[in-house]
């Protein structure tokens, strides 16, 4: 399973910031970083980034990279804005798919929307369609999520919060895991016990036989 995570825009993109100066990319890039870390817990998952912390990557370069790597899903993370750049009351979470509403994209978008709304406790603005470049020019399932409005004071407080960024990342990971039935990597050790004996002599005899055959063995007492 190959997943491309896209932190929308870039650190120097003009206008992509809250009225009090938080840059959208600060939110977007942290969320995908946390999401990548979360996806490491799953088997057979490879994560790619389409963006860069050192430059603003053009949209065409992002989608070309996704297509060249033949990823299975492209997930773009954003923070929204409304109006002329000042504070206003528009708030909430919304998720986008391409206007043709591909079934798999719509299914994933529905999970993304539900999960992010659940952690944000903001208005559910629903799953919508848009002719965005990253939805139109990608050859794989593509979804774009707007996780709150930078131009709303309450939303902006959330967007600045590291705990919210981690919660959104986890919500996205859970949506991907549910959609694609990802399996967690096993944790801890698997143990093989040859036998349990009430007699110490029997236990030591079996242990000696195993050692003679080249198998490391030991005896321990358990009440």
What does this structure look like?
This is N-acetylmuramoyl-L-alanine amidase. The protein folds into two domains: 2-180, Zn-dependent exopeptidases (Aminopeptidase, 3-Layer(aba) Sandwich), CATH 3.40.630.40; 191-223, no CATH class. It has helices at 24-39, 59-68, 103-120, 133-136, 153-160, 162-180, 200-212, and strands at residues 2-7, 46-49, 73-80, 93-97, 124-129, 141-149. The chain is α/β, with parallel strands linked by helices. Strands 2-1-3-6-4-5 form a six-stranded mixed beta sheet.
What is this structure, in a nutshell?
The chain has 223 residues and is of the alpha/beta class. 39% of the residues lie in helices and 17% in strands.
